[in-house]
């Protein structure tokens, strides 16, 4: 039976009545986003811990810059890996692809005498072909991605040894190729002892972030969704602004804005938009969340899976170019264990083992956690074997936390 209110007695609740959340609502907001919030808290805690343990050396301008340069390729791989994991797959071949594409680039430039951009183009083309190769076997033939990429890990490592003749190939003939991973933009706007251009770029980024968050807040209000109180909203913006500008100051007082950081920022923004606001991104989440339901709803599962691996090949090639640029050459053992670092970054950043869950920014944050841990332990002189033990425990705890959250949610 339907009950209809008398004419004139119906009231329309304006969207703005659901703007802010009280104490209980804020607790619910925090609980619901505990995993996402937790990785940011963990990153801040790690930064503070190693700052104390290293006597402030981990926060020096030079060390902050080195972290960006040394771990950028892992963050690039993490962006692609989290998309693969969201779709319910895994890619074990990316470390070998990094080595192979870097070797192709080095052979093109060093042995072939081609310009630096030709080496980059050759590496990217190779990465796309490798991604298509993996995607064909996974999407069209139906072989599990674990098996396909395990075979690829062996195949492309072997091809790296073949084209390099099992020896290292270096250096690149001019400094242009090396600028990809080790170059800086500085002095464009001058500055008394620091680079003004770096500070301006980050200030623009802060403004962009604030505008984006404000628009998101307004959209949620218009749909009567729960949002935090305005003071807490402003506090969040302020904390992010302080963190970004502090990071910018460290870079500005060192060598300026790393070119590879610009590349990484562009990739993060582009892939965040693709995964959150495009049809392709929603279909990736649908496949990972419920494959049968996605197929029944009209998602072209084979095509999406194919392009997921093509994209992973592309990003692995980008990482290969960055790594070879950083190394000023190609080595047979390049990229060793990179796939495990990328997988760990994705899981620590919030990706679910079963698929369907994860964010690009979460994977990047997970990669930063791994980078801060590795860098901090290196500064403290921790033995390499013990570093591996600690990383393994962190990954295990992250996955255990994911399973615990799922069981707790299922018991409600």
From TrEMBL:
Pfam families in alphabetical order: BPD_transp_2
Keyword Cell membrane on entry: yes
Domain of life: Bacteria
Keywords, in A-Z order: Cell inner membrane, Cell membrane, Membrane, Sugar transport, Transmembrane, Transmembrane helix, Transport
Keyword Hydrolase: no
Transmembrane segments: 37-56, 68-87, 92-110, 116-136, 143-164, 193-211, 232-251, 257-274, 304-323, 344-373
Subcellular location: Cell membrane
Residues spanning the signal sequence: none
Membrane topology designation: Multi-pass membrane protein
InterPro entries, per database record: ABC_transp_permease
The protein's role, per its UniProt record: Part of the binding-protein-dependent transport system for D-xylose. Probably responsible for the translocation of the substrate across the membrane.
PANTHER family the UniProt entry points to: ABC TRANSPORTER PERMEASE PROTEIN YPHD-RELATED-RELATED (PTHR32196), XYLOSE TRANSPORT SYSTEM PERMEASE PROTEIN XYLH (PTHR32196:SF32)
Protein name: Xylose transport system permease protein XylH
Species per Swiss-Prot/TrEMBL record: Arthrobacter ginkgonis
Native organism taxonomy: Bacteria, Bacillati, Actinomycetota, Actinomycetes, Micrococcales
Gene that this sequence comes from: gguB
């Amino acid at each position: 039976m339907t009950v209809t209110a008398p004419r004139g007695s119906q009231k329309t609740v304006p969207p703005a009545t659901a703007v802010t959340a009280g104490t209980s609502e804020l607790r619910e907001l925090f609980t619901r986003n505990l995993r996402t919030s937790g990785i940011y808290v963990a990153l801040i805690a790690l930064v503070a811990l190693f700052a104390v343990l290293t006597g402030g050396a981990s926060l020096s301008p030079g060390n902050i810059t080195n972290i960006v340069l040394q771990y950028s390729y892992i963050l690039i791989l993490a962006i692609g890996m989290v998309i693969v994991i969201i779709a319910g797959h895994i890619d074990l071949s990316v470390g070998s692809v990094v080595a192979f594409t870097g070797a192709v680039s080095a052979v093109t430039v060093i042995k072939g005498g081609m310009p630096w951009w030709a080496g980059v183009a050759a590496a990217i083309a190779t990465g796309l072909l490798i991604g298509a190769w993996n995607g064909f076997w996974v999407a069209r033939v139906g072989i599990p991605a674990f098996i396909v990429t395990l075979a690829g890990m062996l195949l492309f490592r072997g091809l790296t040894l073949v084209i390099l003749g099992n020896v290292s190939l270096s250096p690149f003939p001019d400094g242009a190729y090396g600028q990809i991973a080790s170059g800086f933009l500085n002095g464009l706007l001058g500055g008394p002892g620091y680079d003004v251009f770096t500070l301006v770029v980050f200030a623009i980024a802060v403004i962009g972030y604030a505008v984006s968050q404000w628009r998101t807040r307004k959209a949620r209000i218009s749909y009567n969704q729960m949002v935090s109180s305005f003071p807490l909203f402003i506090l969040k913006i302020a904390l992010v602004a302080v963190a970004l500008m502090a990071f910018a100051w460290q870079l500005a007082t060192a060598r300026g804005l790393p070119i590879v950081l610009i590349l990484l920022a562009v990739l993060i923004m582009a892939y965040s938009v693709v995964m959150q606001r495009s049809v392709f991104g929603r279909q990736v989440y649908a496949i990972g969340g419920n494959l049968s339901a996605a197929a029944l709803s009209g998602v072209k599962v084979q095509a999406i899976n194919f392009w997921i691996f093509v994209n992973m090949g592309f990003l692995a090639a980008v990482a290969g170019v960055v790594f070879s640029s950083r190394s000023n050459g190609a080595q047979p053992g390049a990229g060793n264990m990179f796939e495990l670092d990328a997988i760990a970054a994705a899981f620590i950043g919030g990706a679910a083992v079963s698929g369907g869950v994860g964010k690009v920014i979460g994977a990047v944050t997970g990669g930063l956690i791994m980078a801060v841990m590795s860098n901090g332990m290196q500064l403290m002189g921790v033995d390499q074997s013990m570093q591996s033990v600690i990383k393994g425990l962190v990954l295990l705890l992250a996955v255990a936390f994911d399973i615990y959250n799922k069981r707790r949610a299922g018991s409600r």
